[in-house]
């Protein structure tokens, strides 16, 4: 946290923006390379994971989402839950003594007066948006490990801003006895439908295709959601799109192949729009980082992770931009980013490579082995 009256300028070799798994793993790599750094996070440690609904489990196996060489072990060897993973991240931070400025937002990154470094402007996470900078950090290197799921996607229909509409599944207990319309048909929506049914909600699913995608629903969810729909416990309205949201009611338009359009009114207490998330590109745009493709992926050197803007790096799922349902960039295939960045910065700051040749060979071999496993048996 920042003091409200603080505006002094600190000096660091690097600033890491984002304290998710890859941000933390980058911090540990910087420690090993003796790079003096500051890591800042707009929310809590692992903020994206923290807004998952309680007891949500990872799709990936524990060995693929562990970081910094620290094993992730669960009591029953199952895939880690939200709570287990957040506890794991805290333990890694404590084990390596990583000091993180949580609830601290980066409001601006601008060139220093001499043009040789960057001035990273920080404000308290509880301050009003657009408020004055409370502190600056002067650094030659900034690492954007900001992820790619900052804001829920929008439907673009009237009434989407009503209080009954939410882009996140909350604690399931709150939905007991309520009529919930879930918009979406992939893992988030399917898992929410199952969990809310178990919690005592009356669930209706609206999905714009004629059926769920056959190749991307988690294997342990598909049989259960199919059974709930067949039994009538969960109502699924396929080939439907939301037309308008009103207090207590949602208008759907069902467009089935070979059939006339059919308007359907669904009585609701809550609407969950679980249709994916988009990346906040504010810092990318502010820095003038070139963005490639419709997803807005930042352009970067895959050997160093540095963007065309000198001294600005990207790491983790931030490199994927706003990903569609066909995700390609996951935590599990980003573990090589921290080492690449640390090596590049260490060579500039100290004139040496990060670690001995044998140590680097071992790390490269381990990374190649994991990459091979992922390619042979992708889980995410």
From TrEMBL:
It is an enzyme of class 1 (oxidoreductase). The keyword Cytoplasm does not apply. Signal peptide: none annotated. Gene3D superfamilies: FAD/NAD(P)-binding domain. Its EC number is 1.18.1.2. It comes from the Bacteria. Keywords: Flavoprotein, Oxidoreductase. Residues 347-366 are annotated as: Disordered. InterPro entries: FAD/NAD-bd_sf (IPR036188), Ferredoxin-NADP_redctase_2 (IPR050097). One of its GO terms (molecular function) is ferredoxin-NADP+ reductase activity. Residues 356-366 have a biased composition (Low complexity). PANTHER family: THIOREDOXIN REDUCTASE 1-RELATED-RELATED. This is Ferredoxin--NADP reductase 2. It comes from Rubripirellula reticaptiva. The lineage of its organism: Bacteria, Pseudomonadati, Planctomycetota, Planctomycetia, Pirellulales. The gene is yumC.
């Amino acid at each position: 946290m920042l003091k409200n009256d603080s505006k002094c300028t600190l000096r660091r070799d690097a600033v890491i923006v984002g304290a998710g798994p890859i941000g933390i793993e980058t911090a540990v790599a910087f420690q090993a390379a003796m790079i003096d750094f500051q890591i800042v996070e707009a929310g809590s440690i692992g903020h994206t994971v923290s807004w998952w609904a309680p007891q949500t489990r990872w799709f990936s196996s524990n060995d693929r989402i562990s970081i910094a060489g620290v094993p992730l072990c669960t009591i029953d060897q199952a895939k880690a839950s939200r709570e287990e993973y957040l506890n794991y991240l805290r333990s890694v931070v404590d084990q390596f003594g990583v000091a993180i400025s949580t609830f601290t937002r980066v409001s601006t990154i601008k060139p220093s007066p001499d043009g040789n470094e960057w001035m990273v402007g920080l404000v308290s996470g509880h301050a009003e948006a657009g408020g004055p900078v409370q502190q600056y950090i002067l650094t030659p290197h900034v690492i954007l490990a900001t992820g790619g799921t900052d804001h829920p996607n929008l439907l673009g229909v009237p009434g989407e801003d009503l209080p009954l509409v939410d882009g996140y599944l909350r604690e399931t207990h709150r939905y007991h006895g309520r009529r919930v319309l879930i918009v979406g048909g992939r893992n988030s929506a399917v898992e929410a439908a199952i969990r809310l049914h178990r919690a005592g909600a009356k669930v209706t699913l609206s999905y714009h295709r004629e059926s769920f995608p056959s190749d991307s629903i988690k294997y342990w969810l598909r049989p259960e959601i199919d059974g709930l729909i067949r039994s009538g416990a969960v109502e699924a309205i396929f080939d439907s799109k939301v037309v308008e949201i009103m207090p207590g009611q949602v208008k759907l338009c069902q467009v089935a192949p070979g059939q006339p359009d059919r308007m359907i009114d669904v009585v609701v207490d809550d609407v969950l729009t679980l249709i994916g998330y988009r990346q906040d590109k504010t810092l990318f745009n502010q820095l003038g980082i070139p963005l490639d493709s419709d997803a807005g992926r930042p352009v970067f050197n895959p050997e160093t992770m540095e963007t065309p803007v000198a001294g600005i790096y990207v790491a983790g799922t931030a490199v994927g931009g706003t990903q569609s349902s066909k995700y390609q960039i996951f935590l599990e295939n980003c573990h090589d980013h921290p080492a690449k960045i640390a090596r590049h910065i260490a060579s500039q700051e100290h004139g040496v490579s990060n670690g001995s040749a044998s140590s680097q060979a071992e790390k490269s071999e381990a990374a190649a082995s994991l990459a091979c496993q992922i390619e042979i048996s992708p889980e995410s």
